Amino acid sequence: MQNFNLHTHSVYSDGKSQPREIVEEAVRQGFSTLGFSEHSPLPFDNNFSVKSENMPQYVTEIAQLREEYKGKIDLYCALEADYLTGISEPFAVTKEKYHLDYLIGGVHLVVDKVPEPVEGPAPTINTDEIWFIDGPKWEVYDDGLQRLFGGDIRRAVRRFFEQTNEMIENEPFDIIAHFDKIKMHNRDRYFHEDETWYRQLALETLDLIRQKGLVMEVNTRGIYKKRYNGFYPSPWLMEEACKIGIPAIISADAHHFSEISLEFDAAEETLKQAGYRNVVNLKDGKWVEVPFS
Question: Which CATH superfamily is domain 4-291 in?
Answer without folding.
Answer: Metal-dependent hydrolases (3.20.20.140)
